[in-house]
Amino acid sequence: MNNLVFKTLKFVPLLFLSFFGQWPLLVFGQDTRPNFQIEVPNTPNWEVVMEGSLLKFQLRTSGSKSDTVFFSAKQGLLDSMKFDSTGYFEWYPDYDLADRTNALKTIQVIFEAHNTANEVATRSVEFRVQHVNRPPRVEELKPFYVQNRTQNIFQIDPNALRDDDGDPVAVIPITETLPEGAKLSSSGELTWQPSLTQFNNLKTQPIFVDFLIEDQPAKARAKGRFKLEATQMDLPPSITKVPKGDYFKSKENATINLKFFLSDPNGDDDIAAFDFVTDNPNVPRNALVRNTDNQYEFIWTPTYDFVKDPYDSLAFEITFFVIDKEQNRDERKIDFTILNAINEAEKDKQLYELYRTVLVEAWNLHTQLSEKEQELKRNYLKAKKGKKNRSMVNAGLGAVTGLSPALIKVPDQRVMVTAIGGTTIMTVGALEAAEVIGKPLKDLLDRYNYVLEKKIEIQTKGDVFAREYALKAARRQADFAKKRDEFRTVLALKGPVTLDLDAGWENKKEATDKALSRAFKDFTVLEK
239: closest CA among 285, 214, 275? Predict the structure, then answer.
């Protein structure tokens, strides 16, 4: 059997004895026919498909013992795939298989083929689906109803801005269609406060606003449009107050000024009335001032007697309200607290009266002393001149028995002498007339000097006092009362009886401001 040649046979078994034992060896002949398998298209990238595009092909087999072959999908077949037993495959990949973050999606399908000879073959195919960006789209938008003199804010419905790929979108305004003063943001927010003219025009002719939406990052665009119309609803008016806040604290004699701006979505001509009510009847009605049909001011200055003693404050509420012609209403409630305050003007007036009164007293006393000065001066000159032809004998011892004038005739002279009777030794001298009538000259001079000194002191201290407290701010100081009392002590006289001052004396001149200014040059009249 060394030169034995085997011919290739189809499945013809030969029985040989084994060289190694008694058992026979069954040997099969080699089958050179190809194995049963599934054939796929051989074009490049045939398994790559774009979302929404058609992919179709026909599967075939090779190496089959039978001409009858049946195909099926063993695993991975999607509902959108069409595949029949003949091996025909057709597929439109859905747009949601891939997206912008995962642009390539792999789908694996295992196909199976079997024939009537019970042969079975399988083949795995990986389909690669590429993402396709779809442009966004704008669905129908509802109209935006604009209110008058109001900052209208509208938001384009995000549900109406569609992007089937789930991409973020940005709104791009078309400025040519935007009304003046309106703004459209990239998020789709429209802000617009129309003027009165714009609102009136809007009542007769709506405005159509065009815009674009753009998906990111593909930058695909779609166009949209919405309509602006004047509101047809009977909306209530509104109140805007300046300054803001619902609580105000103030003092007596301090002015409260609040500004109110009224607006009505249906037009300012729809406003019927604006007024206020309060739980305090002392708030005057005329404090509310009308400037224009939609502008008012509340101007009020509480008087010093608004908060009654002994209370230090008073709280109350004012409700401002506006009503339109359809009786729609808006209101603002404001709480006020008024603090009790000192009437500075009245206090300054009282302090001024104290300041002026003490200066009037000083001026009167100065005038009275001036008159007394003249009187003492006349008496002093009269006493100093004396009475000629009179003499007096002053007894040194004993008693004077007589005192009489005697006339002695001397040629070309007439001499008056005093004749004294008795035996007592006498000293005769010529004395001043004041000594004769019981008023010593020294006492007269002392009173005269005291009057002069007191006048100078009153004038000097009066000038200082008038200058130091000429201003209101100085009189408000705590030491004013003390300095005033000190100045009044200057006006006190020692021994006024000895000066023979008339207790009922009245100044013949009126204590006018002009007279006080002449007396005390720094005296200042209170400003009215």
Answer: 275
